[in-house]
Amino acid sequence: MPLPIINSIASWILKKRIHQIELFLKYPHEVQEELLFGLLKQAEQTVLGKKYDFSSIKNYKTFSERIPVSSYEELEPYIEQTRQGAQNVFWNTNIKYFAKSSGTTNAKSKFIPVSNEALENNHYKASKDLLALYLNNNEDSQLFVGKSLRLGGSKQLYENNNTFFGDLSAILIDNMPIWAEFSSTPSNKVSLMSDWETKLPAIIKESIQENVTSLAGVPSWMMVLLNHALATTGKNNLLEIWPNAEVYFHGGVSFDPYKEQYKKLFPKETFKYYEIYNASEGFFALQDLNHSNELLLMLDYGIFYEFIPMDTFGKIEQKTIPLSEVELNKNYALIITTNSGLWRYMIGDTVRFTSINPYRIRVTGRTKHHINVFGEELMVENTDVAIAKTCEILNCEVIDYTVAPIFMTEKSKGAHEWIIEFKKQPVDLEKFSQTLDKMLQELNSDYEAKRYNNMTLNPLVINIAREHLFYDWLKANDKLGGQHKVPRLSNERTYLESLLAMK
Predict the structure, then answer these.
(1) 239 — phi, psi (to 5°)?
(2) Which of 101, 170, 329, 469 fits a disulfide with 280 by CB distance 3.0 to 4.6 angstroms?
(3) 55 in Cβ contact with 66 (< 8 Å)
(4) Of the candidates 430, 459, 414, 470, which has an alpha carbon nearest to the alpha carbon of residue 257?
(5) CB-based contact 420:398 (threshold 8 Å)
(6) Contacts of 282 by beta carbon, 8 Å cutoff, 6+ apart
(7) Please, which residues have CB within 8 angstroms of residue 67's CB and are 6 or more apart in sequence?
(8) Residues 255, 275: Cα–Cα separation, whole Å
(9) Given this model, what pLDDT does residue 181 score?
(10) Better-predicted residue by pLDDT, 478 or 244
(11) What is the DSSP secondary structure assignment for residue 184, as one 8-state letter?
(12) Average pLDDT for residues 423-440, to the nearest whole number?
């Protein structure tokens, strides 16, 4: 069958999903409520279902009062039972796969359950939805005439008591339909390679021969790959290698600090960027409009959403609210109940609603990765946007950064200390520091108040990192490639000190 016909048929099938999306846009609360009671019904005969008497829960109030909000550590005993071979513990269908996730540090690994329902009705459904929405917005797209260059995690799956664990991307590849592999590059064999520094040239070798029309992966690692592709081929930009490339699907870290660099790699006005929000625990939101920086919260993926306002987070008065009670432009910790048996699970991310009709969000950071030592409530969203604006003003480019507090002493005030690796350094570092500080104050009124007349916080302290510092730090911590990333903000100095030691 000729490729243009395949492209037309695929577009027609995917666009049929648009009508279902319109349903939850029109009835968001009803869809979420029906989903919650469906999850409770399905799991009522499990160990957890009997413990909390799921069968007698008839409304959200009872659900929220009876089942506690849980961290991974609190759910771990149940997860370990399943990893050792027990089933029907927290979900009624067999859990065969566990996504191994250890976040950004060397902390103890987490094993996130991934059910068949989550694979089909969450992760794969989201991938199809992303394509459906993109094609609906771009009717002249020729996406399926070529292939998608995907850059996921690595490492093969490992067996444990007839269950399997590994990177989420390895689980997705292991269960991927044949047509999906046919439309992607590199091959599954290369995608699953464990060693990043061997994998990188292998991806380039396979992919530069293909007609790549789209790309998908984390911006920081995709940038490394694409720069190597240019160096390998001697080309000036990526369109000289892949002239039909039309869209980059990205997620995992904020795109703001990288956007201008990508525009130089793909110098075409019509080239699109589409953002997604997913994790080992599930796929939550995706960009549904061209040229948008908001993500549509997907309400029919087998996930029930709740939110903790960050102004009460971790306090005695902490409260959890359903979707129907969220407000615009407030930071919330995200709580999920999923079709993999995670019940009121605190995922650790923070989001802000930019729209409530429909529900659209921005990911603002992590509950653990922000700075509030001095009451400044600085979020990753603030620093990413401030870095991007500062670089645009001063014509410089940043590869990576992290920030930590300088604690007050009897003789000195506090401050924020940065270490930044530049691709293109600013001509005047002092001007860069002042501009960055000004941008942060414009974006965050709490930070501005603490910086007023150096009342609480002194000016920023900026360290310039040597070339490849962050790459070497990740390598030293066995975090090269895939979804791994440097923690942007922290209330303590561990990350910063370890980077400064390698500076």
Answers:
(1) -70, -20
(2) 101
(3) no
(4) 470
(5) yes
(6) 118, 122, 123, 301, 302, 303, 336, 338, 340
(7) 52, 343, 344
(8) 8
(9) 67
(10) 244
(11) E
(12) 95
Which regions of 357-396 does DSSP assign to beta strands (E)? 359-366
Q: What value does the mean pLDDT take over residues 312-329?
A: 93
**H helix runs in 244-320, sequence order:** 259-265
The stretch 103-121 carries a mean pLDDT of 78
The dihedral built from the CA positions of residue 257, 154, 246 and 468, taken in this order, carries a sign that is positive
Task: Compute CA distances 351 → 203, 334, 375, whole Å.
Answer: 34, 7, 19
Separation between Cα atoms, residue 362 and residue 15, nearest integer Å: 25
Encode burial over 47-58: b for 16+ CB neighbours within 10 A, e otherwise: bbbeebebeebe
Cα–Cα distance between 423 and 467 in angstroms, integer?
Answer: 8
Instruction: Name the residue among 499, 500, 445, 447 with its Cα closest to residue 476.
Output: 499
The yes-or-no verdict on residue 3 having pLDDT over 60 is no
- Structure confidence by residue, pLDDT tens digits, 459-468: 999 999 999 9
Q: Is 100 helix (H, G, I), strand (E, B) or coil?
A: strand
Record the pTM. Answer: 0.85
Phi-psi region of 234 (alpha: psi -120 to 50; beta: other; left: phi over 0): left
CB 305 within 8 A of CB 282: no
Q: For residue 392, give the amino acid letter.
A: E
Return d(Cα 144, Cα 152) in angstroms, integer.
20
45-97 confidence digits (pLDDT tens): 999 999 999 999 999 999 999 999 999 999 999 999 999 989 999 999 999 99
3-state secondary structure of 369: coil
Residue 60 and residue 66: Cα distance in Å, rounded?
A: 10
What pLDDT score was predicted for residue 373? 83
Angstrom distance (rounded) from CA 31 to CA 24? 6
Distance from the Cα of residue 85 to its chain's centroid? 30
Residue 1: the pLDDT is 44
- Cα–Cα distances (Å) from 60 to 65, 205, 305, in that order, read 9, 53, 12
Task: Calculate mean pLDDT across residues 35-44.
Answer: 97
Lookup: tokens for 499: 């980077």
